[in-house]
Q: What sequence folds into this?
């Protein structure tokens, strides 16, 4: 293990963590503000509400959750012996700055320039601003999203370069063979994808999978963004249905940009706390073979309710239901493996491990609500309702978010050389986030089942009562995050562990 | 609440309870740690895969025949054209008869909209996306006479929440 490479991974992870935590604070404030406004607490103007919604969506999803797990990926890889080499390091730093610039651009164009096209900026809405923003603002917003998209591509390149590195111990020198070895093919075809002496660590597999998939998913969106930037200044146009499909070609896999690195963290940390190896056999590798293919071809379940006459769209949508169902298999098998790794183990319960296990609970529950969305007959009722908002907050905040918090509490002491400022504050933060966040998502889900539409700055009267009921929950959830920010800040600036103590 | 929404609420509620019980069971198991046969558990993961696949197939075959696709207006259907634009629905005619299929022909003059039909008591009835440059047809038979609301269910800009239309179903 190279000390310099370890130090580089440490610095990178800390930078990603610091930046993503700041973005969490900002996007959390925005999210709380718009939810309170729906309950008539500090009512915002309509365009302000929709602009903050746009900033919150991109900020929380990409700027916080994705950015944070992207950062932890470097540390998990290094901890497994997969150290960054020159190209990987360049990509990692480039990713950081592209992401920071992209998020900053999104904040400026939404919060200050009033762009309110939502994070999906469904074509051609950015060009129909109802007098609220201009073409230059549209172009700047789209360029900022493009920067964030390029950050994802450069991260993927860095990941792919690292997972096929020397630590893979693959027998083959062929880079394609090495890649398939890295995503677990050796468990299924041990002769063709041989490693010597150790098999591929399970935690490597989801990182390799997402490294490939997000390049495939992001490049078409990048093309659409460039075209839309041109349209800001020239008289060109895109087929709106095609644009919608391209958007979701990216928009679904990006969920896995959050989930798969989080799974790598689960695979890496849960066995440590359980003090036994991950309970997994060859079959889990099969799940990841399904994932690497299905992940990029299930986009159309986001457009189940788009079925224009004389188009192929309904047929595509119909095929998407079984395809999307197949994507539950990696989750189901991973949950099985993690569950039985913990089962009857001498599990060490602390803030970090509690956060991870509560994240697993949320993964199961949010995954099941996702099966509802994946079913056309059910989606016909819940599509674009607050049920969807409940589902993705459950998944992003309480599965991915709790992984990020757990990983932060676990890794921060070794990243900083300083003990965690307060284990007690961390436990309070984790439990309050879990309960308040789950209750908050449950309220949204219930409102959605009652028919409450999403993306309404002012909800119809029939749904306002539960929006008001959510206010105390939002306050508790927001206050709980202060404990997290304090812990991160005071750990980073606290006294270092003396070598004697560290060895004790 | 819409009947399908009730089905979702009940089914999801049951699996949530099962999930929570499982995790409480998991937590308690760590209070009395002991060696387990990890290889046997890993081997049994194949059995779990079969269970998951069978459950998904069951859900697929139970639901796949209930999609809004491919339903064309039968002879004698009432045709209603709906033109969506920021931030209004132009619905013509504005009244239909109960018990007779209605074919809604949806178009948009500008951006993507959503055509969401609700009863006067805010119970969800049906929805479809309205894509510019395309015509979408959705067929429905209203059993209950009364006034129905139309909400836009795809974000379309500044006054998206205020984009409300209505029509009447006559006895």
A:
């Amino acid at each position: 293990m190279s000390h310099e490479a370890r130090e580089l991974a440490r610095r990178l992870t800390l930078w990603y963590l610091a930046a993503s935590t700041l973005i969490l604070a900002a996007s959390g404030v925005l999210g709380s503000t718009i939810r309170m406004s729906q309950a008539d607490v500090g009512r915002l103007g309509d365009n302000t509400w929709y602009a903050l919604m746009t900033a919150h969506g991109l900020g929380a999803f990409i700027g916080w959750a994705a950015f944070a797990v992207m950062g932890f990926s470097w540390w998990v890889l290094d901890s497994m012996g997969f150290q960054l080499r020159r190209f990987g390091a360049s990509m990692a730093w480039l990713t950081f700055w592209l992401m920071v610039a992209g998020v900053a651009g999104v904040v400026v164009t939404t919060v200050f320039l009033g762009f309110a096209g939502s994070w999906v900026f469904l074509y051609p809405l950015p060009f129909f601003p109802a007098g609220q923003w201009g073409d230059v603002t549209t172009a700047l917003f789209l360029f900022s999203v493009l920067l964030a998209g390029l950050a994802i591509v450069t991260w993927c390149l860095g990941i792919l370069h690292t997972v096929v590195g020397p630590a893979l111990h693959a027998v083959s020198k062929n880079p394609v063979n090495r890649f398939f070895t890295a995503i677990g093919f050796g468990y299924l075809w041990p002769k063709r994808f041989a490693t010597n002496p150790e098999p591929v660590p399970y935690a490597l597999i989801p990182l390799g999978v997402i490294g490939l998939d997000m390049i495939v998913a992001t490049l078409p969106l990048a093309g659409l963004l460039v075209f839309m930037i041109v349209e800001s200044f020239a008289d060109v146009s895109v087929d709106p249905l095609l644009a919608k499909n391209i958007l979701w070609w990216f928009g679904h896999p990006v969920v896995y940009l959050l989930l798969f690195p989080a799974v790598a963290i689960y695979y890496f940390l849960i066995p440590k706390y359980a003090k036994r190896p991950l309970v997994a056999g060859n079959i889990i590798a099969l799940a990841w073979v399904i994932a690497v293919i299905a992940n990029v071809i299930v986009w159309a379940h986001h457009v189940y309710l788009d079925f224009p006459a004389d188009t192929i769209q309904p047929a595509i949508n119909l095929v998407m239901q079984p395809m999307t169902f197949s994507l539950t298999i990696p989750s189901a098998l991973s949950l099985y493996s993690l569950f039985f790794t913990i089962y009857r183990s001498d599990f060490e319960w602390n803030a970090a491990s509690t956060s991870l296990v509560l994240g697993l609970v949320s993964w199961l529950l949010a995954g099941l609500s996702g099966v509802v969305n994946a079913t056309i007959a059910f989606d016909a009722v819940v599509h674009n309702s607050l049920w969807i908002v409940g589902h993705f907050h459950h998944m992003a905040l309480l599965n991915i978010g709790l992984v990020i918090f757990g990983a932060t509490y676990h890794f921060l002491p070794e990243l900083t050389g300083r003990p965690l400022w307060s284990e007690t504050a961390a436990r309070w933060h984790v439990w309050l986030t879990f309960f308040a966040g789950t209750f908050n998502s449950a309220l949204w889900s219930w409102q959605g089942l009652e028919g409450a539409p999403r993306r309404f700055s002012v909800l119809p009267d029939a749904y306002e009562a539960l929006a008001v009921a959510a206010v105390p929950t939002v306050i508790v959830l927001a206050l709980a995050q202060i404990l997290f920010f304090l812990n991160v800040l005071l750990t980073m600036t606290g006294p270092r562990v003396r070598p004697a103590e560290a060895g004790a | 609440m819409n009947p399908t929404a009730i089905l979702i609420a009940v089914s999801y509620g049951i699996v949530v309870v099962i999930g929570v019980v499982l995790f409480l069971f998991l937590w308690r198991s760590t209070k009395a740690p002991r060696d387990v046969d990890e290889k046997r558990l890993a081997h049994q993961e194949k059995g779990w895969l079969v269970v998951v696949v069978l459950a998904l197939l069951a859900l697929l075959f139970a639901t796949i025949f209930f999609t809004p696709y491919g339903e064309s207006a039968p002879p004698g259907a009432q045709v209603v054209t709906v033109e969506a634009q920021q931030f209004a629905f132009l619905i013509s005619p504005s009244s239909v008869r109960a018990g007779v299929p209605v074919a809604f022909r949806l178009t948009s003059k500008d951006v993507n909209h959503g055509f969401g039909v609700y009863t006067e008591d805010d119970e969800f009835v049906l929805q479809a996306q309205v894509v510019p440059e395309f015509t979408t047809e959705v067929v429905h038979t209203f059993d209950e006479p009364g006034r129905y609301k139309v909400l836009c269910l795809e974000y379309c800009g500044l006054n998206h929440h205020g984009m409300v239309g209505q029509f009447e179903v006559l006895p």
Remarks:
- The mean pLDDT of chain A is 94.
- The longest helix of chain A spans residues 3-38.
